[in-house]
Design goal:
Blueprint lengths: L9 H7 L17 E8 L3 H11 L8 E8 L1 H9 L6 E3 L4 H8 L12 H4 L2 E10 L19 E2 L7 H15 L5 H14 L1 E3 L4 H9 L5 E5 H9 L10 E4 L3 E6 L2 E3 L6 H10 L3 H9 L3 E2 L2 H6 L10 E3 L1 H8 L14 H10 L4 H7 L5
Parallel strand pairs: 1-2, 1-3, 5-6, 5-7, 9-12
Antiparallel strand pairs: 3-10, 4-7, 4-8, 4-9, 4-11
Length: 359
């Protein structure tokens, strides 16, 4: 069965892709004697649109102008690897920064250059449904009901797609212990239920808003944004969302590009992302903060009863077992293990997509 790629309008592509925005919400962010280029995946734009003006109100940021570029995480990473101008990068998944380490444009110790392994915010995987939840979607099993059409990006270009698939994979495989069960679920989902594969998480959201699919697998922050838009949305674009009892912790890292013309300015901006002020702004825009005091303070903004929140660290430990012989005597861990097993060129989920849902 053929899987189609969403064809979005030119205006949508330019908004979600690699273009820059100098006046988010009518606020000029480009002026200043210094300048930083932020290259990021598509989803956090609403957060940065309030974070950047706030940073420019501080002493370290008062004379720094910004250009922003947003798009699918993998595509953005490859652009920076080709030396597209960048000072700060924020990607959906760690491997997209690892690519830049290998290319020599991000320092090897980037995770130690900022708190929380240089991850200033995150999210969890959510299920966005039509208002009233007409298909009664509550669990991962419900996505496999006959006739349910699912929208999620292609993991070949999108980091969010990886998170989206890891959530049910981890649930069904018990954290990688039963790899076959996890892959069987993903194969059935891809083969029988995914009809649209946009390039990025934001393009997937747009496709769902345009009426495609019954369920959108997405970041919780995207779900929150869509829910907030119900008041002005067309009837067929209004949504609800569900946080499954078992889901996945999304961690979206940031790094300073070492070829920057203003490394000090880039470092100051990254440092600001972890301040209490910025953490509150992330939370207000639907992104989960990472500072414990702000996590506690804003807990009411994130409803849902999560019984098990799987993590890359947990999954990588299991999937990396027995890989030492091929990796200098040490088992792979974290994203290296997960990418190798599931999403790399020879990864099991990569093969599933290449074969149209067949293993």
């Amino acid at each position: 069965m053929l899987l189609c790629v969403a064809v979005l309008g030119v205006g949508v592509i330019s908004a979600c892709g690699g273009g820059s925005t100098d006046e988010p919400g009518g606020v000029d962010i480009s002026s200043g004697s210094r300048h930083l280029n932020l290259v990021a995946y598509a989803v956090p734009k609403p957060g940065f649109d309030v974070i950047i003006p706030a940073f420019r109100q501080t002493e370290p940021g008062h004379d720094i102008g910004f250009s922003q570029s947003y798009g699918a995480s993998g595509d953005q990473s490859r652009k920076v690897a080709r030396r597209v101008p960048a000072d700060v990068v924020n990607f959906s998944v760690e491997p997209d920064i690892t690519r830049l380490v290998k290319e020599g444009v991000v320092d090897e110790n980037w995770k130690k250059q900022a708190p929380n392994n240089s991850t200033p915010f995150g999210s969890v995987v959510a299920l966005v449904v039509r208002e009233g939840n007409p298909k009664n979607i509550k669990t991962w099993d419900d996505l496999l009901k006959p006739g349910v059409e699912v929208v999620t990006p292609n993991p070949g270009s999108s980091g969010s797609a990886k998170w989206n698939l890891l959530a049910p994979y981890a649930s069904k495989s018990r954290g990688g212990v039963d790899n076959k069960a996890g892959l069987n679920y993903v194969a059935e989902l891809v083969r029988d239920h995914i009809r649209v594969q946009p390039k990025s998480g934001r393009e997937a959201t747009t496709a769902f808003e345009q009426g495609q699919g019954d369920v959108l697998i997405s970041y919780e922050n995207e779900a929150i944004m869509l829910k907030r838009n119900n008041a002005v949305a067309a009837e067929n674009s209004k949504v609800d969302y569900v946080i499954p009892e078992e889901t996945f912790k999304i961690e979206n890292p940031v790094a300073v590009v070492n070829t920057s013309d203003d490394v000090a300015g880039a470092q100051a901006f990254v440092k600001f992302l972890f301040t209490d002020e910025a953490q509150r702004l992330w939370a207000r825009e639907g992104f989960r903060p990472v500072t414990q005091t702000i996590i506690d303070e804003t807990a009411g903004l994130f409803p849902g009863d999560i019984e098990k929140l799987w993590t890359i660290k947990e999954l990588g430990k299991v999937l990396g077992e027995g890989t030492a012989a091929d990796n200098d005597g040490k088992d792979l861990t974290g994203w290296k293990a997960v990418d190798t097993k599931l999403f790399g060129q020879k990864g099991a989920i990569t093969k599933i997509y290449a074969n149209g849902g067949k293993q």
